[in-house]
Amino acid sequence: MTAPEAPPPPVVHAPVPDDPDAHFVCPAPFDPTAEEVLPEARQKALEAGHWRMVWWKLRRHRLAVVSGLVLIGLYLIVLFAEVLAPYALGDRDTNHIYAPPQRIHLVHEGEFIGPFVYPVQYTLDMVRLKREYTPDTRTPQPIRFFCSGPSYEFWGMIPADFHLMCAPEGGTLFLLGTDRLGQDMFSRLLYGTRISMTVGLIGIAISFVIGVTLGGLAGYLGGWIDTVVQRMIEILRSLPELPLWMALSAAVPVTWSPIVVFFCITLILGLIDWPGLARAVRSKLLALREEDYVTAAQLMGARPARVIGRHLLPNFSSHLIASVTLSIPGMILGETALSFLGLGLRPPVTSWGVMLTEAQNIEAVVLYPWLMTPMAAVMIAVLAFNFLGDGLRDAADPYD
Amino acid sequence: MGPYLIRRAGLMALTLAVTSVLVFVIIQLPPGDYLTTYIEELRAQGEMVPPERIDYMREQYGLDRPLVEQYLVWAGGLLVGDLGYSFEHSVPVRALIGDVFILTLVVNVATVLFVYIVAFPIGLYTATHRYSVGDYGLTFLGFLGLATPNFLLALILLYLSNRWFGTSIGGLMDPEYLDAPWSIGKVLSVIEHLWVPVVVIGTAGTAAMIRRLRANLLDELHRPYVTTARAKGVPPTRLLVKYPLRMALNPFVADIGNLLPQLVSGSVIVSAIMSLPTTGPLLLRALAAQDYYVAGAMLMFLAVLTVIGQFVSDVLLAVLDPRIRLGGGLAK
Q1: Can you spell out the DSSP letters for B281-326?
Q2: Architecture, CATH, for domain A64-79+187-395
Q3: The domain that contains B138 carries what CATH number?
Q4: Cβ-based neighbours of B33, under 8 Å, separated by 6 or more
Q5: Which of A16, A96, A298, B201 has the lowest CB atom count within 10 Å?
Q6: Is residue B234's pLDDT more than 80?
Q7: Mutate to test the interface with B, among A63, A239, A254 (most CBs of B within 10 A)
Q8: Nearest to residue A176, comparing CAs of A388, A355, A371?
Q9: How far apart are CA A314 and CA A150, in angstroms?
């Protein structure tokens, strides 16, 4: 694709006074071989490749850039959840059940001693049958950093016990409180990020493969294949997604191992979500397949798969990336909703939706509002993907 | 109009037929059938189940016949209003449903109306007052509404109402009307309770609708015909209503195709949380208990709801837009 010709630099003439019908002619001799000299920045812009221009345009979209950084942060958590979490997955502190979040303090009795927490005293309010935790403000307990804490297996393979921060010696560090089993909500939230953010990626990969294959065949070959695929798309789009997801996940046997269930759920999410993508691919291909270079490729004996994959898809890959980004939130929300209803992932697998099942009954929510924190994580992830997707969609066509 | 209607109705019938196959396959997916589970339960309780009785039950429910035949029996039953039999409650599914379908319909129709009534003036305002404080404020609210999943919104509302008013906002009517026959009081009670779930389910759809109406109207507002009309001296309000608004309304009506499945999905999960007497909790319960005729009936009902809704919206669109009814093409 060539960039449009830049207009020639305006030639400035001295205005002729009192001439109402001004007509200017450039006095310089005409040289047809002369190359236009452009400012360096402009020249660079003309030579920039497609992806560089997409990036330039995306960069101007502040919200999209910030969202991209947030997402990079979330995926770093996915990679290093074990190191970042102060507690290991499944660690239970039965002395601190439904403990409220502990605040991090910096100054104790007018003296700066770095980040520390106060230990909490547990009493049971026998009248209201409520667990009361009161901070003991006499003894500050400094948080340890770069420390060895509860041991874990990094990515389930390498045994280690290094943590970014750990609970003080003999103390506790519950930044977001604890749940019904005395598990640290903050650590679980980090581990939950791993599952919830991967569900979106794997699910979208499945839906991408189906969508591009079916949409590609329909758009490129046309005819009865197109008709069949179009009807499938219409039918699937006219059905409510969630009840179908619910019915399909209810069919996954409870006895299967958590890993298998995880893959089944992502498969289910992907299986129902492809029509949107297939439709986008189809309509793009319908327009592009009439281009000359497609005929050229066909005359040289390229098969449909090669024409689609090598010549057509790269033409709108930036559009594809944008629509993929915009469909990931739906997957994350789908998993959260399913797990929340108890039909998706189940403990010991920890995802945001699994954590939110604890917040299902109103008593728990009113007494222990910190159980709702995974909600904030879900909203941040969904918003970030939406903003980044919006930015990408605007940037996908950088030639205006 | 005639040929278009026939084509559109044909497509609707095809969609429903395919959906019924899909639903039947899905509800048959779990390994084993309800009878196996039931017999296991009886055995676990120490009860002897004579094999003749098992065979009898199998025959009674048609579970011994090939799947295609089972499907035909089930689908044929659906056509004449026979929804099958609930194994869990030992009653026909019809008896189990009671007001559930009507209430689901009420909730969803009310939500669609809510979305349109709220989105229309706000979309109009944000488009005509672009880049004003009101536009920015409402756009921001819209983004928040889009990003908050409705079941989380339901939880937040439940929490806040409990915190501030000390009452629960769950349910769709006052408790005394739960099993009572329909009366004026019951209808009023439903209307009184309806707004919370309607707002919860409709927020995301409203936000999306506002954005779309705003974008459509902004496209139209700068067309040459608007400039021409303004140059001719048409008053601003009349101008807005007569030309750009009519153009922008088309996508607004067509969009019900996207809106309806989304709303129905939302209503399923929200009603499960807010314990509304609609299809949501019943579907969830049936899925958990493998009571598959009940689950099938619920799924089919939800599908019929969206498919008919889309049919209505397409017909409306054809009335609005002569290009569609004359071209005979589908509204896509």
Answers
A1: HHHHHHHHTT-HHHHHHHHHHHHHHHHHHHHHHHHHHHHH-HHHHH
A2: Orthogonal Bundle (1.10)
A3: 1.10.3720.10
A4: B63, B290, B292
A5: A16
A6: yes
A7: A239
A8: A371
A9: 48
Interface of B with A in 143-202 (CB under 8 A): 143, 146-149, 151-152, 155-156, 158-159, 162-163, 168, 170
Exposed/middle/buried for residue A65 (C-beta within 10 Å: 0-12, 13-18, 19+): middle
Backbone torsion region of residue A162, taken as left when φ is above 0, otherwise alpha when ψ lies between -120 and 50, otherwise beta: beta
Q: Where in chain A is the domain with CATH 1.10.3720.10?
A: 64-79+187-395
- Label residue B216 exposed, middle or buried (CB < 10 Å: 0-12, 13-18, 19+): buried
Instruction: Give per-residue pLDDT as tens, A48-100.
Output: 777 788 788 888 878 888 889 999 999 998 888 888 888 888 777 777 778 77
Both tokens of residue A99? 């403990």
- pTM of the entire structure? 0.80
How far apart (Å, rounded) are the C-alpha atoms in residues A294 and A297? 5
Instruction: Assess B275–A contact: CB distance below 8 Å, yes or no.
Output: no
Give kind and range of the element (H or E) at residue A89.
Answer: none
Q: Is A293 helix (H, G, I), strand (E, B) or coil?
A: helix
How confident is the model over B273-324, as pLDDT tens digits? Answer: 887 788 888 888 888 777 778 888 888 888 888 888 888 888 887 887 777 6
Exposed, middle or buried, A321 (CB in 10 Å: 0-12/13-18/19+)? middle
- Identify which of B159, B273, B287 has the shortest CB distance to residue A250: B287
* Beta-carbon separation of A246 and B23 below 8 A: no
Domain-located, residue B316? no
Residues from chain B contacting residue A360 (CB–CB below 8 Å): 273
The number of folded domains in chain B is 1
Distance CA A349, CA A355 (A): 10
Distance CA A250, CA A264 (A): 11
Residue A151 CB partners (closer than 8 Å, separation 6+): A88, A159, A160, A161
The helix or strand, by DSSP H or E, that contains position B195, with its residue range, turns out to be helix B184-221
> B72 lies in a domain?
no
Which tokens is A130 given?
Answer: 């409520």
Beta bridge partners of B85: B92
- Alpha carbon distance A345, A339 (integer Å): 5
**Cβ distance A362 to A42 under 8 Å?**
no
Chain B environment of A356 (Cβ under 8 Å)? 152
Q: Which residue has the tokens 């004359």?
A: B326
Q: Is the peptide bond before A348 cis (omega within 30 degrees of 0)?
A: yes
CA distance A400 to A90: 53
